[in-house]
Design a protein that fits this description.
heterodimer, A: 0% strand, B: Rossmann fold, Alpha-Beta Plaits, 4 domains, 5-stranded parallel β-sheet, 28 strands
Chain lengths: 384, 604
């Protein structure tokens, strides 16, 4: 097998984050310190070696960066200040751009201007469509004293928008995941995954997505897990409710406080805000290793999600208190931030890790099953 | 060249690694004002990339000579020389003025730095090797530090017939080498090499040993120093003590033995080891019951020679010397700082120095490798017949090559770790010994062969810096990456030896102030030139030797000690002391420069 050395790989990677990994002299203490490293998945040192040697093929087919949850132990014990933790984070950014076949991800990660241009374009498109398709501004209130939101933003139209967006994002994300699958599992011709494993290992995917238990293996991440899990569940609930059950969720009728519609909404809002505040405070204080370096894409994601949540809260407050114009303005603002956030962050940027992380575990387990099968064969041959 | 010669100055800024507080802008401005200086380049603004452009500037300004001054000046020389050739000037007209070589690092050296440049503009390289002090040199020498380097240096000087004072902080000379069991790579017994030398020092007519003493103050000039020495109260009269040991036997107070690296206990009145020189007892005032409470005095009652005076006070003496050799050595890295290895938490994680004592036939167990245990009073010590380890791990680079501790390589750890591995295999052939290393630095004569030999002795070599020691159910586990075999190691281990690096001593800073010499960024004493003169400091009469200048193994330390002695003997024989850069004031330099330029003018 021929190995190609890509001398530009290092320079290319520099644009995705910090570049101290050149310092690494391969003592292996980061790998040995890592609580998540295991047989067949020795990281972060090996990936640093690949980058230093310019082995691009090894780098893009490497699943290890997704298995790292950035507790920062490797960075604190590193004798060379090579910052392996942030290296893994940069690799995740890089890999996101590698899996994305459209090339937009790379554009967004490496250029602030393009990312902002796209955000603003999407936002303007949303605002324009509200203006063009003539919002029915109805200042009268319902019998309960709530705002007639459904007159302003008819559910049937919003639902169409929802589903279109969901289909586009899903198409992009799924094709990217397939690209990832091809790179990690299929491109390695030596490993043949047993067919049944594809079904057995799906369990792992679901378990990990819902519990994120892998995060708990890092001692330093245990408190972070609470915020992260609340954020994830809050976001998932909100997503399902808004896309699938919009008629049930966006009502003119003001339900009592204990109605499941309101309780679910409150939980989701709390979860997202809590998780976000952990990240914001952490990134501002810069005490923990994982928050010390913030890439532009990290901040953009946090700020957009924060604004979406905030405008969502405002809609709710204005609506139940019967303030029609305020409700409508915040509704437009909500949409104008939400749409670019979903369209840019989910398939092309940081938010995509919601799919890549659990799938990485799935793929790594598939690979392992393949290697196991292969080893059994080799052993049989050896004994025969 | 004479008066018409036009001069350019290329100033090189210090790059990483130089901790320098000097105001460049001022220097550069003043350089511009020297007569005949046409142009001053600055390495931050003029990057040496385009030779043609640089040559153009040279020919435009008609520059005949270029002075490269500043830091790391050699790097720019080839470029500038070829540029001068292109400009059809004589490329040999380049003068290098390396500030580092001249010992310039602080704002206070600014005038001096400027004088060196001015001197070069006049066409003369200021060379202090031509300058000696005028006054007569005192023929006596003070050597600070009684380790192998100090011993070697004092023997060289004393054998040349000159008087030496050998000053030692502890109660006996010998230093760290006396603690070692074997030396690498020949596996000679360390004591067999060292103790004859110690005895020779002890009996030499020209050597006066000042043990249990410290330097307090140094006054005077190179060639004539007055040194105030604090002689701490030994409380035992050296001249009368017969070394019978009855006092120590009866002494009720016990503390950890420093000489045994805290692996066992000693009495409060003690002798560090049986071959100590002087072989006389000593009372450690920090643990003596009499000193503490005024009651006890058992030792006085039992002493047959009647040589103990418990009320003795510290004394200060003053000696006159012409030269001083600093050979203060090192201390080992405090392994407690690397928390991941659990030193101080797990009893069977040892530093290499502790293990060195444990395996030594004169050590706490008589050379038996046992586990650490608690004695009756609850002190952790090593005692014989306490089980032996089935697996021993040796972790390299503890505290060395680590930005969190010391950046430098300590130079000796790889080799002594190999030696310790051999010693374990020799005493316990069935025990598994594993070395966890980053790079194996076997750099000396016979060292790499020694490495090959140890590998053939069934010692496991793992390339990978072990990351932590953990304890589960009383069993220690070591975790490391095995880089060569692409595996993760998590193995049971009974005993862990941390190959701790070496550091400057805690009191090095104090000595630096007393002697008026300098230290480099990492804390070791600064040498006059890192390549050609590692012995002399920037002060003429003070010579540095051994590990206190930078990590060295035993053969190198011995050589360095001898080399230091030769510099001292040169000063004594010549009757004048060579001046160091610190011994010139800037006005002195300027007057020398003037003298030179007058001479030059007279010639032309």
């Amino acid at each position: 097998m021929s190995v190609r050395v890509n001398t530009e790989l290092k320079e290319e990677l520099k644009r995705f984050g910090v570049n101290e990994w050149n310092e690494c002299f391969h003592c292996g203490s980061c790998t040995a310190t890592c609580p998540l490293t295991e047989e067949n998945h020795l990281f972060p040192r090996k990936a640093m070696r690949y980058v230093q040697m310019g082995l691009k093929k090894k780098v893009v087919t490497n699943v290890d960066p997704w298995l790292c949850y950035y507790c920062g132990d490797c960075t604190t014990t590193c004798p060379r200040d090579a910052n392996p933790g942030e290296f893994m984070m940069s690799m995740r950014r890089y890999l996101t751009s590698v899996y994305d076949w459209t090339g937009l991800s790379k554009l967004f990660y490496t250029s602030k201007i393009w990312e902002f241009v796209f955000v603003i374009l999407f936002a303007l498109a949303v605002i324009l469509s509200f203006i063009l398709f003539g919002p029915a501004v109805d200042k009268t209130l319902t019998a309960q004293g709530g705002v007639k939101l459904n007159e302003f933003a008819p559910i049937s139209i919003i639902e169409i928008g929802d589903w279109t967006m969901a289909v586009i994002v899903a198409f992009l994300l799924i094709s990217n995941i397939f690209n990832m699958f091809y790179k990690i599992v299929l491109s390695d011709k030596k490993v043949k995954v047993p067919f049944i494993s594809y079904f057995i290992e799906i369990r792992q995917l679901i378990i990990h997505y819902s519990t994120q238990s892998r995060l708990l293996k890092c001692k330093k991440n245990r408190s972070f897990w609470v915020g992260h899990w609340l954020l994830m569940t809050g976001y998932t609930i909100m997503f399902i409710v808004v896309v699938v059950y919009l008629p049930w969720f966006q009502t003119e009728e003001v339900h009592s406080f204990y109605h499941p519609q309101r309780l679910l909404g409150y939980y989701a809002t709390f979860g997202i805000l809590f998780g976000l505040s952990v990240a914001i405070i952490g990134r501002l204080r810069k005490k923990e290793e994982k928050f010390k370096f913030s890439h532009m894409s990290d901040w953009l994601f946090i700020i957009m999600l924060y604004l979406v949540t905030l405008s969502g809260i405002l809609i709710h407050i204005f609506r139940i208190n019967g303030m029609p114009m305020a409700t409508y303005y915040s509704y437009v603002a909500h949409m104008a931030i939400l749409v670019p956030m979903i369209m840019i962050e989910v398939p092309f940027s940081k938010w995509s890790h919601l799919a890549y992380r659990p799938f990485a575990i799935y793929f790594s387990r598939l690979r392992r099953a393949g290697i196991r099968k292969q080893n059994i064969k080799i052993n049989q041959l050896a004994t025969a | 060249m004479g008066e018409k010669c036009n001069i350019g100055i290329f100033f090189c800024h210090p790059e990483n690694g130089h901790l320098i507080t000097l105001d460049w802008f001022d220097i550069i401005e003043r350089m511009n004002n020297i007569s005949r200086v046409k142009i001053v380049w600055n390495s931050r603004q003029t990057l040496l990339i385009d030779i043609d452009e640089f040559a153009k500037i040279i020919s435009e300004n008609d520059i005949d000579r270029i002075i490269i001054s500043g830091f790391d000046v050699g790097i720019s020389k080839t470029f500038i020389a070829s540029a001068m050739e292109k400009a059809s000037k004589n490329p040999k007209e380049i003068i290098l003025i390396d500030f580092m070589e001249y010992g310039i690092s602080n704002e206070s050296d600014k005038n001096k730095a400027f004088s060196f440049v001015e001197c070069a503009v006049k066409g003369v390289i200021f060379d202090p090797s031509e300058f000696f002090t005028n006054n007569k040199v005192n023929q006596q020498t003070l050597i600070i530090g009684g380790g192998i380097t100090g011993i070697q240096a004092s023997l060289e000087i004393a054998n040349a017939g000159k008087k030496v004072f050998l000053l030692e902080k502890t109660g006996t000379i010998g230093g760290h080498m006396a603690m070692f069991d074997k030396t690498f790579p020949t596996l000679d017994c360390a004591a067999c090499i060292l103790t004859p030398k110690m005895v020779e020092v002890g009996q030499h007519q020209n050597i006066e040993i000042l043990t249990y003493s410290e330097v307090k103050e140094v006054n005077g000039n190179p060639g004539n120093y007055k040194v105030k020495i604090l002689k701490k109260a030994r409380r035992v009269d050296i001249t009368a003590c017969i070394g019978c040991g009855i006092c120590s036997e009866k002494c009720p107070s016990k503390v950890y033995s420093e000489f045994d690296s805290d692996t066992c206990l000693r009495k409060s009145i003690y002798i560090a080891f049986p071959q100590a020189v002087p072989n006389k007892y000593l009372i450690d005032e920090s643990s003596c019951i009499y000193v503490e409470s005024g009651k006890c005095g058992v030792c006085v009652k039992v002493c047959p020679a009647d040589c103990i005076d418990l009320d003795e006070k510290d004394k200060e003496i003053e000696i006159d010397v012409g030269n001083i050799i600093v050979a203060t050595g090192f201390k080992t890295f405090d392994a407690k700082k690397t928390e991941q290895y659990g030193y101080g938490k797990f009893p069977n994680v040892l530093t290499s120095l502790e293990f060195e004592r444990l395996i030594n036939a004169s050590g706490p167990t008589g050379g038996e490798i046992t586990f650490r245990s608690k004695d009756k009073k609850g002190n952790w010590v090593f005692a014989p017949n306490n089980g032996s380890p089935k697996s021993v791990a040796i972790i390299h680079c503890v505290g060395s090559r680590d930005v969190n501790h010391n950046k430098y390589c300590s130079r000796v750890c790889c080799m002594y770790s190999l030696k310790l591995a051999h010693l374990v295999k020799e005493k316990l052939p069935d025990t598994e010994v594993t070395e966890y290393f980053i790079d194996m630095r076997a750099f000396g004569k016979g060292y790499d062969e020694f490495y090959e030999r140890i590998k053939s002795e069934d010692v496991k070599m793992i390339r990978g810096r072990a990351s932590k020691i953990e304890q589960k159910n009383g069993q220690m586990y070591i975790r490391s990456e095995d880089i060569i075999n692409d595996k993760l190691i998590e193995e049971k281990v009974d005993m862990v030896i941390l190959a701790v690096g070496i550091e400057p001593r805690d009191d090095a800073g104090e000595l630096e102030k007393i002697l008026g010499i300098t230290r480099s960024d990492d804390g070791w004493f600064m040498e006059a030139n890192s390549q050609s003169n590692t012995n002399e400091s920037f002060s003429g009469g003070i010579t540095i030797a051994g590990v206190c200048q930078g990590p060295k193994d035993i053969p190198d330390s011995v050589v360095h000690g001898s080399a230091a002695a030769s510099r001292v003997l040169r000063n004594i024989m010549k009757g004048k002391v060579k001046k160091g850069f610190n011994d010139f004031s800037s006005s002195e330099i300027i007057s020398i420069v003037k003298e030179f330029s007058l001479k030059m003018e007279g010639k032309s």
